[in-house]
């Protein structure tokens, strides 16, 4: 169906926090420009998987992993510049994090760290990212007020704008709707539908219906193992072919 | 738009990390440096031939005559006893007050009053030891003479009062942390069972916080043992074991005898010794002794505090 | 319990006092009174003493007292060379201990893994803080003055002070760094900021007030210490040009306020009775002023949180 090489390729990946296993030899791949939904109950290793992909897992004490993760055919473990890898991947955490900087500086933070300093470039980039995250109209008059003083929903969109500011090729969203109201959630979902044209999206979500609305394919991760990975129509159908998937999607366990 | 190839990013990161690492381990370097240099100047005396010094006499003789022309003697027993006397007496005075103040501060007052008290205590903790010594000399000294009708006010009691005043603020602030670490649910549970706050403090709070309070006392002891200028000026500075009279009977007025501590001896005599002489080296040996005592105290306090964390 | 007739739950009028309850209330009041007395007994004499010192010393203090050298065998004149000496010692020693202390705290809080080595470093910091000042003095003499050949000088004395007071700034900085939420760091790492960029642009700026508090406390410690400088660089007397802030050189010996108090109290005869009190007053007021600054910064910090 797709001949292009996979954007992310995970093979035989296992991980542990101390002695506690998280993933048990999982393998899958993410195609370029698709939206991959990941569903599953808490503690099933969803967040850890994202952190392994952008190599922030190693910053946690006691975490270790085996197996390979390739991004664009390059093993993330051996990339020459890990910061460049992280810039290639945008990451949105479950709880909105406004850095204690102005709104402008929040978005300009990553480009500045990467060495971009010309004011006009930064201005253009900040506006573009804030527009993409559907926040521009609300904050364009107060770009120099503190990002931490925004409301929760606005902060989450600010986080998305920041994740876009280093122009990633992959966007990982980790249960982004957990702390925001349904209206804002719907607005962000609209944003994602726009973004999927240009970039690959991994959407970890606690709302199974959100995966159904947005994802091309959906992966059901449970207890560190992939129970099923298939097109969303199949996963969310009346007959996904796996009893556990059916039970979880229909709220019978989990 | 963003320049993605930046090798120096990694290079500069490496160099700053190395610098931070070096600063991080500097504490270890300094501690080893302190041990090394103090031992380096002091230890040669232990192994030196043809000297009046011997370790046995150092620990068990009370004869401290380092500047005698005919017969130099280096017995530090009286100094060790002096340090112990003053320290223990200071703790006897300080611990009840510090404990009371700690409990009052954390359980019986609140809001602005508490904040003010804490600030006052913090300011007291910042008063330099030389000022305390000055207070001992000019305020406590005449006070002791008047109150107890003794000829000299510069004695063990004076030194102990000064040390107690110095150690109390520290003990209060560490002790308060210990009480703060007791979960509020303990207090609420006790009060909900109908205990008065008095009962709550004695039956619940103090037992629960005993390790932290012990650590506070230990750190107070460490501070008192190591204190120099205060005791140098306040204790009268006489080499003397205060507990016995010349005829060997127990001296009930030992509190009013002048004593001399290990720290004060170094401070008073180091300036007059010539580098490398026996006297100079024996003062460094006293430093080694002090270093060992405070290490033991600090390690114990650290273990006691760790013990609390493990329980939780 | 139910059989107790006075049990509030079963009593028809629950708040009517009975002997038991009244006894309890009395106990409560006694407890409060006892503890309050303890505090009063601890604090009042101390404050009284300090006021006494200041009252006796104040008449002698004037602008002239601060800006003239001691004279006539230190029985007359002011404290200029001692005051300037203390300032030099504090500034030079701060130049060493503040950056090293802050970076050491950065290492311990941001980089150190939870392993035995980190525990050893922590233990070293604790022990460094617990080493008696007189032992620091011996170290300064053995290491800086003799081994490194600095001689008795401002440099040697400052380095001794720096080693001695560094734990203060390490502890305060660690606390300040620890108060910056972990999520900020993770957010920075996620957008490709390096660890140092994260620390420099986000963590340190948000901990700066706490760090400043630690540095100021360190200044007050340095200004008051006597023993560590006694054998490493401070002298009883030295006249310097009045009014010249750069009258000292790094290799000079200097006077210091704390040492000067010791000198005029115990070594000088024939000085006016108020002189030591005046020196003590200047020292106390300076220290209280420095500490008050740190307390003010902390209060300001509490009211200006950015998150």
List keywords for this structure.
heterotrimer; A: 254 residues; alpha/beta; Rossmann fold; six-stranded mixed β-sheet; four-stranded antiparallel β-sheet; 25% strand; globular; C: 307 residues; mainly alpha; MetI-like fold; two-stranded antiparallel sheet; 2 strands; disordered N terminus
Overview of this protein structure:
The complex is a heterotrimer of chains A (254), B (312) and C (307). Chain A has 254 residues and is of the alpha/beta class. Chain A has ten helices and ten strands. In chain A, strands 6-7-8-3-9-10 form a six-stranded mixed sheet, with helices on both faces. In chain A, helix 3 crosses helix 4, helix 3 runs parallel beside helix 6 and helix 4 crosses helix 6. With 312 residues, chain B is mostly helical. Chain B is built from 14 helices and two strands. Chain B starts with 6 loop residues before the first helix and ends with a helix. Chain C contains eleven helices and two strands; from the N terminus they run H-H-E-E-H-H-H-H-H-H-H-H-H. In chain C, strands 1-2 form a two-stranded antiparallel sheet. In chain C, a hairpin with a 4-residue loop joins strand 1 and strand 2. Chains in contact: A-B, A-C, B-C. At the B-C interface, helix 1, helix 2, helix 5, helix 6 and helix 7 of B face helix 1, helix 3, helix 4, helix 5 and helix 6 of C.
Distance between the termini of chain A: 33 Å
**Beta-strand residue fraction of chain C:** under 5%
Work out the helix count of chain C.
11
Radius of gyration of chain C: 26 Å
Fold-level CATH name of the domain at 80-262 and 278-302 in chain C: MetI-like fold
CATH superfamily of chain A: P-loop containing nucleotide triphosphate hydrolases
Tell me, rounded to a whole number, the average pLDDT of chain A. Answer: 88
Mean pLDDT of chain C: 87
Lateral strand order in the biggest sheet of chain A: 6-7-8-3-9-10
At the first level of CATH, the class of chain A is: Alpha Beta
CATH architecture of chain A: 3-Layer(aba) Sandwich
- Shape call of chain A: globular
Largest interface: B-C, 84 and 89 residues
Low-pLDDT residue intervals, each spanning 5 or more residues of chain C: 1-11
Give the C-alpha Rg of chain A. 18 Å
The amount of helix of chain C comes to over 70%
């Amino acid at each position: 169906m797709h001949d292009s090489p996979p954007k992310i390729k995970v093979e035989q990946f296992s991980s542990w926090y101390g002695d506690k296993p998280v993933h048990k030899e999982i393998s899958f791949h993410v195609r370029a420009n698709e939206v991959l939904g990941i569903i599953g109950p808490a503690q099933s290793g969803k967040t850890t998987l994202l952190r392994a992909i952008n190599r922030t897992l190693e910053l946690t004490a006691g975490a270790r992993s085996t197996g390979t993760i390739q991004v664009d055919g390059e093993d993330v473990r051996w990339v020459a510049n890990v910061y460049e890898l992280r810039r290639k991947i945008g990451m949105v955490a479950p709880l909105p994090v406004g850095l204690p900087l102005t709104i402008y500086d929040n978005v300009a933070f990553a480009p500045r760290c990467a060495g971009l300093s010309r004011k006009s470039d930064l201005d253009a980039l900040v506006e573009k990212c804030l527009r993409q995250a559907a926040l521009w109209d609300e904050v364009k008059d107060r770009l120099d007020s503190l990002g931490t003083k925004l409301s929760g929903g606005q902060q989450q969109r600010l986080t998305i704008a920041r994740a876009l500011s280093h122009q990633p090729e992959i966007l990982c969203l980790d249960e982004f709707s957990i702390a925001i109201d349904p209206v804002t959630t719907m607005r962000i979902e609209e944003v994602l539908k726009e973004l999927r044209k240009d970039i690959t999206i991994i959407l970890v979500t606690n709302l199974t219906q959100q995966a159904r609305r947005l994802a091309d394919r959906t992966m059901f991760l449970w207890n560190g193992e992939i129970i099923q990975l298939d097109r969303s129509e199949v996963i969310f159908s009346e007959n996904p072919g796996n009893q556990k998937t059916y039970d979880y999607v229909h709220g019978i366990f989990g | 738009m963003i320049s993605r190839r930046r090798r120096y990013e990694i290079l500069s990161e490496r160099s700053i990390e190395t610098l931070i690492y070096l600063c991080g381990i500097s504490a270890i370097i300094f501690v080893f440096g302190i041990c090394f240099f103090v031992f380096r100047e002091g230890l040669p005396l232990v192994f030196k031939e043809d000297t009046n010094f011997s370790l046995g006499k150092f620990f068990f003789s009370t004869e401290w005559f380092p500047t005698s022309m005919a017969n130099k003697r280096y017995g530090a027993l009286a100094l060790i006893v002096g340090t112990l006397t003053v320290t223990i007496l200071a703790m006897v005075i300080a611990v009840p007050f510090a404990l009371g103040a700690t409990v009052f501060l954390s359980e019986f007052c609140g809001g602005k009053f508490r904040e003010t008290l804490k600030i006052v205590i913090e300011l007291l903790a910042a008063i330099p030891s030389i000022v305390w010594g000055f207070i001992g000399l000019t305020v406590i000294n005449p006070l002791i003479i008047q109150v107890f009708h003794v000829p000299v006010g510069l004695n063990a009691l004076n030194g102990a009062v000064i040390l107690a005043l110095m150690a109390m603020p520290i003990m209060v602030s560490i002790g308060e942390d210990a009480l703060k670490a007791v979960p509020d649910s303990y207090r609420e549970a006790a009060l909900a069972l109908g205990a008065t706050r008095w009962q709550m403090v004695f039956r619940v709070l103090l037992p629960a916080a005993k390790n932290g309070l012990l650590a506070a006392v230990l750190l107070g002891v460490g501070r008192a043992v190591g204190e120099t200028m205060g005791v140098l000026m306040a204790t009268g500075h006489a080499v003397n074991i205060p507990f016995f009279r010349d005829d060997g009977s127990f001296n009930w007025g030992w509190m009013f005898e002048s004593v001399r501590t290990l720290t004060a001896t170094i401070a008073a005599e180091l300036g007059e010794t010539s580098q490398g002489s026996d006297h100079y080296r024996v003062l460094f040996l006293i430093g080694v002794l002090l270093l060992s005592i405070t290490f033991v105290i600090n390690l114990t306090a650290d273990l006691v505090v760790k013990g609390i964390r493990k329980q939780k | 319990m139910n059989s107790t007739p006075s049990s509030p739950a079963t009593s028809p009028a629950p708040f009517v006092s009975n002997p038991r309850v009244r006894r309890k209330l009395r106990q409560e009041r006694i407890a409060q009174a006892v503890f309050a007395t303890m505090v009063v007994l601890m604090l009042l004499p101390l404050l009284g003493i300090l006021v006494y010192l200041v009252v006796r010393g104040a008449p002698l203090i004037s602008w002239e007292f601060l800006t003239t050298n001691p004279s006539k065998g230190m029985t007359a004149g002011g404290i200029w060379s001692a005051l300037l000496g203390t300032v030099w010692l504090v500034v030079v020693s701060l130049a060493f201990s503040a950056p090293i202390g802050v970076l050491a705290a950065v290492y311990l809080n941001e980089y150190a893994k939870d392993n035995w080595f980190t525990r050893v470093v922590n233990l070293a910091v604790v022990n460094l803080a617990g080493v008696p000042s007189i032992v620091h003095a011996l170290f300064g003499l053995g290491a800086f003055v003799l081994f490194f050949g600095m001689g008795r000088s401002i440099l040697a004395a400052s380095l001794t002070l720096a080693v001695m007071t560094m734990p203060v700034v390490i502890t305060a900085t660690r606390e300040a760094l620890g108060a910056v939420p972990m999520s900020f760091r993770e957010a920075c790492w996620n957008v490709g900021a390096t660890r140092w960029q994260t620390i420099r642009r986000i963590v340190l700026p948000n901990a700066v007030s706490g760090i400043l508090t630690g540095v100021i406390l360190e200044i007050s410690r340095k200004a008051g210490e006597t023993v560590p400088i006694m054998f490493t660089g401070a002298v009883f007397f030295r006249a310097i040009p009045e009014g010249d802030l750069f009258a000292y050189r790094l290799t000079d010996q200097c006077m210091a306020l704390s040492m000067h108090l010791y000198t005029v109290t115990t070594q000088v005869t024939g000085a006016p009775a108020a002189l030591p009190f005046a020196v003590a007053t200047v020292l106390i007021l300076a220290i209280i002023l420095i500490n008050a600054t740190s307390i003010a910064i902390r209060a300001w910090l509490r009211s200006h949180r950015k998150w």
